[in-house]
């Protein structure tokens, strides 16, 4: 059988390309660079130790709502936007008290975490119409807690198809809204 006239040449051995210079060389790939994520990856916002003085969840309530990204202040707990969200509207419910473990929270704090979670879900549904939620508390570094020294519950709105190719192949999440706009919309809708 004769080779097709325009058949590509088959190479016996493929050489690996060096990544040097690819950021400056146009090619067939559209790259989405997210250098702001390096702050989180490098741990710049993580406390150096587990003390209250180093804990961002202890210092956030001292800031204005806008600066701290606080959506709601309760009696024993508050609701804040996650600085590194999985999805737009990713909220955290945190007790004001510096406790690490769910078993260390008081009955009043546990009740308020649950009540604020329920209200947050209703508010996010009203503002953003998600199809579902992931709710969870990661206890300890090994369980995925970014800040294990201070108890916090995640409320992550989910939409059908929100897990697209970007997180899978590019380790990048496209967020269509800036935090200030999300915080304002949620705070304004809070009962």
Attribute tags:
191 residues; alpha+beta; HIT family, subunit A; 6 helices; globular
Task: Tell me what you see in this structure.
The chain is an alpha+beta fold. It has one domain: HIT family, subunit A (2-Layer Sandwich), CATH 3.30.428.10. It has helices spanning 37-41, 56-59, 65-68, 107-128, 165-170, 179-189; strands spanning 70-73, 77-81, 91-95, 132-136, 153-158. The chain has a 5-stranded antiparallel β-sheet. A hairpin with a 3-residue loop joins strand 1 and strand 2. It starts with 36 loop residues before the first helix and ends with a helix. It holds the Pfam family HIT. One of its GO terms (molecular function) is ATP:ADP adenylyltransferase activity. A motif (Histidine triad motif) lies at residues 150-154.
What is the C-level CATH assignment? Alpha Beta
β-sheet strand percentage? 5-15%
Question: Which strand order spans the largest sheet, edge to edge or round the barrel?
Answer: 1-2-3-5-4
Mass-distribution shape: globular
Could you list the spans in which at least 5 consecutive residues all have pLDDT below 50? none
* Strand segment count: 5
